[in-house]
Amino acid sequence: MSSADGLNINTKAAMDFISLGALVHRLDPGIVPFRKATECKIHVSGGEFNVAANLADCFKLNTGIATAMVEYPIGDLIAERVKAMGVKPFYKKFKHNGVNGPNMATVFSDRGLGVRAPVVFYNRSNEAAALLKTGDFNWDEIFAGGVKWFHSGGIFASLSETTGQVIIDGMKAAKKAGAVTSFDLNFRAKLWNIWGGEQKAAEVIDQIVKHVDVLVGNEEDLQKGLGIPGPEVAAKSKLDPSTFFGMIDNVIKKYPQVKIVATTLREVHSTNRHSWSAVAWINGKTYSAPTAALDVYDRVGG
User: Fold this and answer.
1) Angle CA(75)–CA(78)–CA(79) in degrees, nearest 5?
2) In a domain, 12, yes or no
3) Domain limits at 276?
4) Is residue 7 part of a domain?
5) I need a labelling partner for 203 at 20 to 30 A (CA). Which of 139, 154, 184, 225 fits?
6) C-alpha–C-alpha distance, residues 177 and 7, integer Å
7) Are 212 and 183 in contact (CB under 8 A)?
8) DSSP 3-state assignment of 74?
9) In what order do the strands lie in the sheet with 105-109?
10) Based on the structure, what is the number of domains in the chain?
């Protein structure tokens, strides 16, 4: 079924949405910095997983996640939370050796407060998701009942020299199955710097985006993730979409099959008070959402 945005949605598909990415567990001491923390909450997260989880939890859509899973207690905890969110898992399973992995990655993230911004750092040593490679997923089986939308992102692409190709394999299989494909650039320099840096990031992401219908990313993502030149005139404010829209012609010239490019806009007044909006380019037309003033409880995932 074709819509005004040019996307062909398979309305008879069994699955509404499937993500490909890494699952992580996040340690959260709340507003207390880690150097002063005495206890933490554990959250299950992941840049690509969060989309599937929120679509299932908030909108009751039929979603899934293709990812790595380690058979040890932390993996059991994560798998239980995935199930609780109503997301169907497609796991490539790994055995933990009892000493150093493979591991489910840990994200350390406090919430900040007032003028103190949130602090995020990782332990992704010997991460199972980084070991994923071509052939680890049976895409024909995963897409057998049909899927409307397939999604992945730059965080998963950055994990190793093999994960980018896994995304491309998934994108090709999704297109064959009649799915819309999307990719969130989500450029993270500290992750790419582990093995390839900005130049390698642009090379890998370029190959992925050739298979994408819907692209998500801000000006920095487009510049560093795709090597798209930035505009000559800077934005007047963080909520000014002119610089973003000013880059779209170069994006579409390079990737003419892309039908939608979208991003969010955020101006931070304090850790707990943000102005937030979203903008999109859809087949030559631009759209801007109203700006909302938000009280922020926990920025991670938003």
Assistant:
1) 85
2) no
3) 17-295
4) no
5) 139
6) 14
7) yes
8) helix
9) 41-45, 24-28, 105-109, 120-123
10) 1
Instruction: Kindly provide the residue ranges of all beta strands, DSSP E only, lying in 110-193, ordered along the sequence.
Output: 120-123, 149-153, 180-184
For residues 102 and 162, give the distance between their C-alpha atoms in angstroms, rounded to a whole number. 16
Q: Amino acid identity, residue 226?
A: L
Distances 88 to 147, 190, 295 between C-alpha atoms, Å: 13, 30, 32
110 located within any domain: yes
CATH number at residue 291: 3.40.1190.20
Q: What is the pLDDT along the chain (302 residues), one digit of tens a residue?
A: 556 578 989 999 999 999 999 999 999 999 999 999 999 999 999 999 999 999 999 999 999 999 999 999 999 999 999 999 999 999 999 999 999 999 999 999 999 998 999 999 999 999 999 999 999 999 999 999 999 999 999 999 999 999 999 999 999 999 999 999 999 999 999 999 999 899 999 999 999 999 999 999 999 999 999 999 876 555 567 788 888 999 999 999 999 999 999 999 999 999 989 999 999 999 999 999 999 999 988 877 65
Give me the residue label for tokens 């030149």. Answer: 229
Burial 236-271 (b: 16+ CB within 10 A, else e): eeeeebebbbbbbebbbeebeebbbbbbebbeeeeb
Q: How far apart are CA 177 and CA 99, in angstroms?
A: 41
Q: What predicted TM-score, i.e. pTM, was given to this entire model?
A: 0.94
For the stretch 218-228, what's the b/e string if a residue is b when 16 or more beta carbons lie within 10 angstroms of its beta carbon?
bbebbbbbbbb
Q: How far is residue 136's CA from residue 216's CA, in Å, rounded to a whole number?
A: 26
